[in-house]
Amino acid sequence: MIGHYVGSTVTVALARGDSDGTAQRVRGLLGHYDPSRAPSTTIRGHYGNDSAEKAAAEGRFIRNLVHASDNHVDAAADFMIWFGEPYRHILHQEAHAR
C-alpha cells in the first residue's frame, strides 16, 4: 500500500462516535466508495475524480479521498494495513483542538 502513496500528501484524521447510527451517518456524508457513483452532494461525489471502472482498466486501486470503518476494531485493523506498526501510537492519542 505504501508504494502507491509514497511522495503523495496524505492526511490522517481519526474520529470516533459511539452513538447509534454514527457509521451510517458518516457513510452518508462520504458517499459511494466509487466516486463516479457517489451523489455530488457527498464528499466523494463532489471532490472525487476517479472510478472503479477506470482503476480496474489501469490495474490500480481507486483514488479514493477518504476511508471509513464501521467500528473501532475494524478501524484499528484498517489503520494497520495502511500505515503499519510504526504508527500504531496514533490510534491511542487524545484529540486536541486547534
Could you walk me through the main structural features you see in this protein, from its secondary elements to its overall organization?
The chain is built from five helices and no strands. It has helices at residues 2-5, 22-30, 43-47, 52-57, 72-83. The relative contact order is 0.14.
Number of helices: 5
The helix-strand sequence is HHHHH
Overall radius of gyration: 15 Å
DSSP strand content: under 5%
Decide which structural class fits the backbone.
mainly alpha
Please estimate the helix content: 25-40%
Mean pLDDT across the residues is 81
In summary, what is this structure?
The chain has 98 residues and is mainly α.
